[in-house]
Amino acid sequence: MTATVPVTAALALGDDALVLSHRLGEWMGHAPVLEEEVALANIALDLLGQARVLLSMAGDEDELAYLREERAFSNLQLVEQPNGDFAHTIARQLYFSTYQHLLYAELAAGDGPFAALAAKAVKETAYHRDHAEQWTLRLGDGTDLSHQRMRTACTALWRFTGEMFQPVEGLGTDLGALRTGWLEAVGAVLRRAGLPVPEGAQSGAWTAGAGRQGLHTEPFGRMLAEMQHLHRSHPGASW
Amino acid sequence: MATATAPRTADDEAYQRTFDAAVAADERIEPRDWMPDAYRATLVRQIAQHAHSEIIGMQPEANWITRAPSLRRKAILMAKVQDEAGHGLYLYSAAETLGVGRDELLDKLHSGRQKYSSIFNYPTLTWADVGAIGWLVDGAAITNQVPLCRCSYGPYARAMVRVCKEESFHQRQGYELLLALSRGTPGQHAMAQDAVDRWWWPSLMMFGPPDDESAHSAQSTAWKIKRHSNDELRQRFVDICVPQAKSLGLTLPDPDLRWNEERGHHDFGPIDWTEFKEVIKGNGPCNEERITQRRRAHDEGAWVREAAAAHAAKHSGTAAAHTGGRTEKEVGQA
Ligand SMILES: [Fe+2]
Ligand SMILES: [Fe+2]
């Protein structure tokens, strides 16, 4: 069984979940309203749970999370982007949760190595997606200020979305085929929120598939430094 | 000292008699029941302070979420900090049943007119502090709060039942974290001992001033809001912790700590009440940081709350249609 685990795919999906969970964890104690402390933590915990299953398919979860160098992580650049204001966090969630939900629905319907995980994750990501959609509506259709901020955030993160549809070895599903459904779903939410669908390219020369190949953005190195520091300071210790 | 407002009318006197009889019979007072103004004010003050402590208490532990040394510990810590936010929610709701809204209470917290537990003004300097907080601070909170599950005010008592269940998880997880460190490398063991050395005395101070100096105790006891004195609870906590410290392989930083056969309790050394008073006055190591972070989160989130309110107002007639059948409130709380 171990021989058939598609390690590349497990790491790609696992790193996405691990890194976004970490970013959401940074909100704790800083959220705009108490209910969001609970909601963002819920999402972070779901993602961390997914990450632990996926990384364990590929090896030892802690070795993989704490002892790999930046270039060995294969998460999307989208999920490593700093939280920014609440609108940026919500835009990142909208883009990523929609993608993750479509992907897990597909994987759950199959009988590949990710089917069991996907069956659970598809329910979790449905909630994450709903949470992001509701906030996109509130912010897009709230006040002038919130509309402006949500619009800025959606535009700023748009160039990181193309990477989601790059092929991942061993995943057993055609990620490119998800793009149409994703564009329709995200477009529909943005329109309901009175927000324009960003016009720029979904990826540039630098970002196209880069995260999956281990090329990341500057803030990611600092994130890993913080995340890995304690673990690396006590080599071989168990916690 | 607070006393019940003197009854003015015959009606009030009858209400007061009903209230007194209910308290005497250990019945629960519910939000719609008549209650003395001073009883209401005491509860609001206590529940608000408790709610504020839950949300300020998220900060010292959230400080370690991004640095948790294993994914398992990270998940436990995130879930714990999330629980504390949930405790804040239950408690602000309990205060609402007394006619005071969350916004008003937060405003009083942010402007320094209401307090939170002083323990959270101490810093979390190492990973072991997360364990020490779980073991000692959640442990002290449970000792304080278990009797509150029988508090005379129904909504507070019921909130405490839920809260105590989760606090006891936190206490066990903290203990287990320290145990792993204590049995780990020499560096890890030293980290655990250092954390216990720093958190022990502040934890004992969580039970409040000694009985002969406690400002609100007598009336609260008569109203069955408070069931045991500060010193009784502190003693109970010390007696619980001593054997646990031993099983942890850690020492408690008190040379006077010893079993007293005659009393059937542990004797312990004098508490530095000067430090306690200084921290309460605002001169603790982190008073400024804690309240500043809270205010900043609140102020920086104002535009988000305004947007949610504006959106809800625009769609008040059709909220269900816009939230897939869930009410705005449910979506917010999910
Ligand atoms: Fe709590
Ligand atoms: Fe707790």
UniProtKB/TrEMBL annotation, chain B:
Task: Cite the Pfam families for this sequence.
Answer: PaaA_PaaC
Basic and acidic residues: bias regions: 325-334
Question: Could you cite one Gene Ontology molecular function of this protein?
Answer: phenylacetyl-CoA 1,2-epoxidase activity
Q: Which organism is it from?
A: Streptomyces griseoruber
Lineage runs:
Bacteria, Bacillati, Actinomycetota, Actinomycetes, Kitasatosporales
Stretch list, region Disordered: 311-334
- Provide the GO biological process annotations: phenylacetate catabolic process
Query: What name has this protein been given in UniProt?
Result: Phenylacetate-CoA oxygenase
Q: Which InterPro entries match?
A: Aromatic_CoA_ox/epox (IPR052703), Ferritin-like (IPR012347), Ferritin-like_SF (IPR009078), PaaA (IPR011881), PaaA_PaaC (IPR007814)
The cellular component terms of Gene Ontology attached to this UniProt record, alphabetical and capped at eight, are: cytosol
Compositional bias segments (type: Low complexity): 311-324
